[in-house]
Amino acid sequence: MWASPVTLSGTQVSLAPLAQTHAEDLAEASADGNLSALWYTMIPSPAEVPAEIDGGLALQENGSMVPFAILDATGRAVGMTTYMNIDAANQRLEIGSTWYRKSLQRSGLNTECKLLMLSHAFEGLGAIAVEFRTHVINHQSRRAIERLGARPDGILRAHMKMANGTIRDTAVYSITASEWPTVRAHLTFQMEKHQS
Fold first, then answer.
1. Coil, strand or helix: which one is 158?
2. Local structure of 153: helix, strand or coil
3. Any bridge partners for residue 9, and if so which?
4. How far apart, in whole angstroms, are the C-alpha atoms of residue 97 and residue 152?
5. What tens digit of pLDDT does each residue of 31-77 get?
6. What is the pLDDT of residues 149-179, one digit of tens each?
7. Distance CA 95, CA 76 (A)
8. Could you give the count of Cα atoms lying within 13 Å of 126 in the half-sphere of its Cβ?
9. Which domains does the chain have, with CATH numbers?
10. Is the pTM higher than 0.90?
11. What strands, in cross-sheet order, belong to the sheet with 77-87?
């Protein structure tokens, strides 16, 4: 497989291959802020976490996803993220299905997490582009993606059905290999600023 499970380690955060051993921590993380109540996202409720892990691991088996547990400096799972919609033939993938416990949002963990994932995608896998997608009305997510340095590709209108029956318009962003050095410098600067 082009993209396969890997551990990525930073100073504040690590990404570990997702496993059922992370379920208890992730259920607690989902409960922090009642994240599953956000109707325009797809964050599992605490009770749904084991099935979410099983689903990610099944997609990993067919080569379309590599799911990660996001671990804080103590090794506690505080969220999830994935490489998804993996297109090995065209050396493209999406970073998505990312969420963090509410108490750690805007703490700098996301910046380092994305730096680790993008570094591995571009420098380890030789990706030519990395995508990010979110609900068009999820302004917090869109601002976070834009802060990374990703550029807008457009809106996929009436793209998918949500669990509550609404239809999602999806905002699509990407970073290309030629843009990666500038994005890497920007993320490194942001991370250092957060640590000082």
1. strand
2. strand
3. 14
4. 18
5. 987 666 666 677 888 999 999 999 999 999 999 999 999 999 999 99
6. 999 999 999 999 988 899 999 999 999 999 9
7. 21
8. 5
9. 8-195 (3.40.630.30)
10. yes
11. 8-9, 14-17, 65-71, 77-87, 92-100, 129-135, 167-176, 151-161
